[in-house]
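Continuing the series of single-chain predictions for the mutant panel. This is the parent chain; the variants come on the following pages.
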Amino acid sequence: MKITKLFETTILFVLLGALSFAFSSTEQMSEISYKIQYMIGNRQAKELVQFLGSLDFEKLTLIEKADYIIALSELYSWAGVDYSYSEKAYKLADEMLKKYPEFWKFHYAMAVVLSHRVQKNNLLAITLVGKIDYHLNQAMQYGPKEWEPFFLAGVRNLEVPLFPNLMLAEQYLKKALDNNPEHIYTYLMYGKLFEKKGQFCDALNIYKRALQLPIRPEWKVVDEEAKNEIKNRIPEVERKCTKK
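Parent structure:
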């Protein structure tokens, strides 16, 4: 049962991305959160494992704790570590949600942890999609000015092979861009949305805007990946736009 090409496409950031951090500018971010983001965005697995090991989780701020949880799940997603990283991430997210049920980023972190598990085993989507949607909805409710949960919810509704909800996907991706207009990967997904709607000239405009954005040092690998995919899509989209 193929429920998620979506998670495979998304979670590159979610995470990862997107990966997955609560700030659009490094000036607002703590040094710990920035270091975690940098290591994820540049795929520095060994350094990230060592850095997380040096931290005292109990002394971290709430945002830093959420980023710590996401980092554990990120490592499970792409760094080749064992399942214990996902187990620890889930346990910590569950504990934090019991203590802080209205803090958006713990809901988002849980959605990321569960999404990464689906990414590893698509059959888990049967039991986990409802939980992922619940935590994304909670994250969007409690973090209306954050971009990450809206981005992931947008991809969730766009990339599902059976019965994608393009209206919801557009609503969420637009909100993600409103909250963070510098996130290149959101432009990529927004362009794909317009392609699915047959609005190829709109998709082309979105892709061109994305290519004008600078590569961010802390998201170098992720941003370059997104731009490369956009460059590969543009020739076909230009042809379809011209035919229109």
